Amino acid sequence: MSASQVGVWETDFQSDLTFGDATLAALFGVDPLDAANGLPLADYIRNVSLEDREMLFDRLNHVRLSGGMFVVEYRTHPTPDDVRWVLARGRYERDPRTGAMMGRGIVIDITDSKLNGQMSDRAIFVMPDRGEAALDRIASLAIMVRREIDELGERESSPLRKAIDTLLWAVGRALAAAQTAQSDRKSRFN
Fold it and tell me: Superkingdom, according to UniProt (predicted)?
């Protein structure tokens, strides 16, 4: 299997079936015909590295319940002797007709880039749908970025800290202005 192959998947939680193409099947070591016809999610998870399963479940449980987007890197074992690094990106959302949670996305084979010195870098991003306004989502994301920058140990004078602090300040001002405008509208109607 060559690197940078892209597999496509779709999960229907009501039927507990995940449908995938031949590339997805190869990355997870399942039969391509079975993947095309749909397999329980557990059949794919069985071939996720034991060291990555808890992290994967932890990150995905939020979006699997309420909907949302995710990007997660983890390892699979298509065969006992083969380890593949994959980058999964997807979105879970409710089917407007049935109300059932559906997931769709891609899985990219990034094994070669991991073997070329990027082993410790991992993409992990989860953004559950919260029904928030755009400005509230921006604030939440900015706070998440600030925590990550703090984890890097950046000094207050570093360009990253200055940039995120400026963004947080601007978002705070915008939120305050929106709150004031909303209060003004309410007082006009009372």
Answer: Bacteria
